[in-house]
Amino acid sequence: MRPRETDLTSEEKVERIRTIADEMKAERIESLDVRGKTVMADYFVVCSGNNDIHVRAIADRIAEKMRELKSKVRNVEGASTGWILMDFGDVLCHVMREEQRQYYDLESLWSAAPKFETGHETT
Fold first, then answer.
1. What is the DSSP-derived secondary structure letter of residue 40?
2. Residue 76: is it exposed, middle or buried by C-beta count within 10 angstroms (0-12/13-18/19+)?
3. pTM for this one?
4. What is the set of domains in the chain, with CATH numbers?
């Protein structure tokens, strides 16, 4: 029997992903509201890890905790590239080494997208 899909809203997924990333000591956690700007997702969550091991640990924990909430990751790309992209359907999570993040500069690429503010404080 397949587990039931989650009833989490997009905003709740963003909040949960941000919280998990923060617990794993991810840095510069940002959420972008890309509704109406792309059909890929409603929100992007972007965060940085210190090295490949840290990036992988952050991504693994996000996948594990979201699975517990019945919000399984649909696809994962780039497991060994320093940039892991996790697809939760309406939310895409980018976990990147800081060097990769600066190089690709997703926040500037999507600068027209407003930042999605949550009640969650991050470091």
1. S
2. middle
3. 0.83
4. 10-107 (3.30.460.10)
